[in-house]
Structure prediction request, 204 residues.
Amino acid sequence: MKLGPKFKICRRVGDRVFGKCEGTKFTVSGTDRIRRGGKHPKGAPSEYAMQLTEKQKARFTYGLTERQFSNYVNEAKSKSGSNASVELYKRLESRVDNVLYRLGLTSSRQAARQLVSHGHITVNGKRIRIPSYLVKIGDKIGIREGSRGKGPFAGLAEKLAGRPTPEWLSFDLQKGGAIIKGEPVFGQTESNINFGVILEFYSR
Prediction:
């Protein structure tokens, strides 16, 4: 998915949605936040602009196309008996590319998607090439035997030293694999995204 200038996108949505924006070169000023949405440079943004910005923030954070993201929203809203905000969050977090990112195997979700697409990752012993694959409790995520210790997997011990792992994931460095031991905990990560506002946008 072609995104365009990442600094520009980060300023437009008023948040550090890309790793590139984490450095000191990027700042989000109060003016940037007011202007996001693009229609009210001298005053507070409209409700629609705020909803649109929140949706774009989430979409760029997880690296999804508009169609992909709207599909997740529709699936979350259609699940009866569930909180749609929580369900949307769980679906986004359960993508295998996001899981690799959460485990610390890559520095970005974009890099995680490349690992999956190139066939370096297995789920329950089977190689997968679909970054959007949704994992579930009990699934085992592994590094393909021929890829271990090479390229992005070299020096994993040093890369993962001191890095926290979400409580719903368990990683065994010696075996080079992880297990999904629970469901993503709503609000534990990406707490800067208001999923309720996003759902309001799609309910217009």
